[in-house]
Write a structure and sequence with these properties.
alpha/beta, Rossmann fold, 7-stranded parallel β-sheet, 10 helices, 7 strands, 43% helix, 18% strand, globular, binds NADP nicotinamide-adenine-dinucleotide phosphate
């Protein structure tokens, strides 16, 4: 439960090594005794993140193994990861993949869908149940503007994220009145290791900017945010462009 001045006592980051996810964790006001749980597939990556968080004063950091492609076991992952009754859960798992490879290799395409959508659904259902029974908490889910309209360069990723975005909005509606809030985050291009091999797109931003926007959204009770905010209006226009025009856009 957040304390009297709104500081979090417990945070769960699914995608425990995510650059954006960790920036969001760092951007949340927390108590001196706060606990952070990191859940993800790569222990060494998460151990490094945990060491950094401890160094910055986080009292306790827990690590839980979670691979979105592994069949079964999600109930145990959720039970362990939610043991400290998280005030904020951030789902920052994501995988851009290689779109050209995904066009030749069905397994590569399925992997993109598994990590960004299919493998997250049971975890989201489990987390929502836990938060509902707590009667409080905020669930932050990392979507993307790429889910708004598929682009040739990354349409498998965009399609999977569109599924995640739609599912999360439905889940949010199902949580109305439970005391649990949900924030869907739709950033544009964020400069992280996920995009390090790509030329920055217009309106590119940083993990810290995303973290600031998420902290504000949690304070204000916003349901959907674009980062930067101008992308809300850019996407409103792009969404309605005729397909023939849209396909001619660069990138
Ligand atoms: N960067 C951008 O431009 C951008 C824009 C819009 C939205 N987003 C979204 O923001 C979120 C965070 O992205 P980021 O930029 O911080 O990228 P990141 O640092 O690569 O984080 C992605 C996270 O997903 C985890 N992951 C990868 N494969 C997994 C699997 N099989 N099972 C479970 N977890 C797995 C990664 O773990 P490992 O350490 O093992 O790889 C990592 O913790 C993602 O959902 C991404 O789609 C990013």
């Amino acid at each position: 439960m957040r304390d009297a001045v709104g500081r979090v006592q417990s945070v769960l980051l699914v995608g425990g090594s995510s650059e954006i996810g960790l920036a969001i964790v760092r951007g949340l006001p927390r108590t001196e005794s706060a606990v952070v749980c990191l859940a993800g597939p790569d222990r060494p990556d998460m151990e490094r993140a945990a060491d950094a968080l401890r160094h910055e004063g986080v009292a306790r950091v827990e690590i839980v193994d979670f691979d979105a492609c592994a069949p079964g076991g999600q109930a145990e992952v959720v039970a362990t990861a939610c043991a400290d009754e998280p005030d904020v859960v951030i789902v920052a798992t994501g995988y851009l993949g290689d779109q050209q490879l995904a066009e030749r290799d069905p397994e590569a395409a399925a992997r993109i869908v598994d990590i960004n959508f299919r493998g997250l659904v049971p975890v989201l259902v489990g987390i929502a149940q836990r938060l509902r029974s707590q009667g409080h908490g905020t669930l932050v889910v990392m979507s993307t503007v790429a889910g708004e309209r598929p682009r040739l360069a990354n349409y498998t990723y965009g399609a999977a994220k569109a599924g995640l975005d739609a599912f999360t909005r439905g889940l949010a509606a199902s949580l109305d009145g439970s005391g649990v809030r949900v924030v869907v985050v739709r950033p544009g291009f964020v400069r992280t290791r996920m995009t390090a091999h790509l030329k920055p797109a217009p309106f590119s931003t940083t993990p810290d900017k995303v973290a600031q926007a998420v902290a504000t959204a949690i304070d204000r009770g916003s349901r959907i945010i674009w980062v930067p905010g101008i992308l809300r209006w850019v996407m409103m226009v792009l969404r309605h462009l005729p397909e023939s025009l849209f396909r001619r856009l660069p990138g």
